[in-house]
Structures are given as structure tokens and as C-alpha cells.
Cyanophycinase (Streptomyces hydrogenans), 429 residues
Amino acid sequence: MRVPPLPARRTVLAGALSVALLTGASPAHAGHGPAPARTGSLVLIGGGLKESNTQVYGEIVKRAGGPGARIGIITAASVPESQDPYAGDPERCSNSACNGTYYADLFKRHGAADAQWIPLDLDHVTNAESDAVVAQVESMTGFFFGGGDQYRYVTTLLRGEEHRDSKVLAAIRAKLAHGAVVAGSSAGAQIASGPDMVTGGESYEGLRDGSAPGYFDDPTRLGHLPEGGFGFLRSGLVDTHTGAYGREGRALRLASDTGHDRVYALEENTALVVDRPGTPHEQLTVLGPNGVAVLDLRDARAHDTANGWTLRRARYSHLSDGDRYDARTWTPRVHPAKQLLRPVGTEPVPADTDVFHSAAHPDGVPYAFRTTAGALAATRAQNSATATTYETGPRFTVTFTKAPGFAAFTDDARTARTLVDLRIDIAPR
């Protein structure tokens, strides 16, 4: 069984925030409409989850009951067997049933007592209303949504234009409310979104052209689904593959266009663990080798100018392994093992002319946005740095600024592992 492939590139702390305020409070974020109190948890992965990531797989299994965990695997975002030319080849297949078997075996290897494919996909849409499948769901203690195309989850598990739960989704939602863990990677994390779930797009085209409701064949066009996904997480927009595909730009544009003031931008092979989602006590923790960016637009202002779109006073925090985040108070809580970074370098920040790792740039480097931010944090030679898009017409400039309240933290005295409240401005030129 081969690892399911990554999806195509289509598929988001304002004011002075001092180090002393990392455990403080600020006004709550109301989100888009009330959500019922839940006692379960979410484990949302930014895609690219490696088989060897025992930290993340182990967390899912632990939250599902440890040695007694029973994991339901939902892979309806994959193509069904009927559309997979390699369906009969276990080494080359990448359809929903094949991927379901792959993940079931993987969860068992990571300690789950049982893991089963839930037979839902475009070949089995009617199973979403099946009492037998509902009974299977009710026997599980946790769930994992695989990657692919999140819109297939909408098609299979929500009732058309009504956007209401099918019987199976209602059963999963009830299990979450009563303590189950719901996990997902890539599209499986995106689908946890509430209103305005991203459906695709690239950063440059998003900045240039803006977003639009819908689902588009053009993979560069920034689209969103106004009704959203399943709404498991409503305190901010969700984006995935963030640094690997340079999606910070599209996340900022979509949030601005749709009136959201926070984005959780998940990086690959790393999880955002959400305890008590949808309640006033929602807490988030980062697990894994990369991180999660929190994009804050509470004080941001966007304008359309003769030269193109601009965004001022957005904020960027990059949280890494062990860091926590209080959604109600907008407060990062840096892991106590990390120390305040005191920059000693005197070298200027290297110039970057592909800040969003353009798909059009054959020699582009992933995580360019994060790299520029980290380099600025580590030097005392300057308080701001700029990076530009690879594309022109217009070329966008991103300005990173150590505004009042900015802080960086390290676990090796040299590298900025966690960043809090870096100001971001975007303008065309």
C-alpha cells in the first residue's frame, strides 16, 4: 500500500502584547454564530503526515482511549474505486477504500485496538443515511478524516443545498459532543471549518484578484464555501499545507474578504490539538516538528488601490511544538522550556523574492514566509524586513515589522522557534 499522495496545490494578536501578557486576557472572539458546547477534542493536521509521526498518531490514539481505541476512518475526500485506474493494484491504488485500509493498518500499528474504514465515498453516497453505518460510527471512540478534496466531504456527508447533517455526520457530531476525538489531515482538517471554508487557490492570484464563493476548476483561483464545512472549529478560519505551499497570502486575503479576524494556518506533519472546541474554554496546543501560524486581523485594514490590494496591520504568530493558545483571550502560552530569544546577529535579513513559494517558480523554496520572519527575529541589525512575490503585474511586497509587543522564543539560544505578534503589511508595487 503506498502512502496517499499530497493533494494538488488548490485545496487561515493585535496591539502591544508584551512577554508578560502571554498568560493574560483580552476580549473574547465571538466567531460566526454560536456553537454547542462540546467535551471532545480535535486533532487537525496540516497535511503531509508521516507514517513515523508517533507523536501525532499517538495523541489521536490516546484521546480515543489508548489500548482500547477504536478509530473510524473516513476517506470520502479521495476518489472512489470506480475512478481509480489502479484500484486493483494495492501498491499503486489511491482511492477511498484503498486509503481507508492504509490508515486502518497504520492506526493499529500505532496502538489502536481496532480501526475500520467507514464505507462512505462518491460510490456510496447513500451510506450517509444508513442505519448500519450509523451503528458502526456509534461503536467507535475516535475518527480520522483523510486528505484529498474537502468538497467531496460536503457532497457525501451533508444534505445538498440544505447543508444539514446526514445521519452519519450527526452521529459523529454526537460522539464528539460526548468525548470522542475527531482528527483529520489536509482536506480532513479543512472540513472542520465553519463558514467560508477555503476550496482552493494560490496566494499570488488571491492577493491580485481576491476571493469568490464557489469551487473552481482553475486551481489558482481563491474560492470559499460560504456555508462552510462541518463547523467543528469556528473560532477562526482553517488552512493547511501553509508553509509548504506558501498559503499565508491566500489565508490573509480570504479572511479579510469574508470578515474573519483569525486564521489557524497549519503546517505539514504537525497537529493543532483543540480541547473543548466551540466552548468558552477552547484551548489549542501545537504538536509536531513544524508549527501553526495564527493570523490576527482584528486591527488590520484592507484597501483596493489603483495599483492593487493592500493590507495593513495584520499580525503573525508562529507557534511550535508544545505551545498553547487560548482562543477566547487570543493569548499564546509559550512552552516553559523555551526561552526569550535575545538577538545577537548583525547580518541583514536575506532578500526573498518568492515569499509565497510560487508554484510558477521552479527553484522556489518552501516555508519562505516563516524563514524571513525567523531571520528578522534573530537579528539586531534591523527592525523590519521586506520580501516580494515571484510574480509581477503587480509584484506584492510583504513587510515584516517588530512592532511593540513582538517577542520571539528559542530552545537553542539561536533559532526563533516561536514568534508572537509580528506585524505584517502587504502592498503592491
Notes: Residues 1-38 have pLDDT under 50 and may be disordered. The longest strand covers residues 309-320.
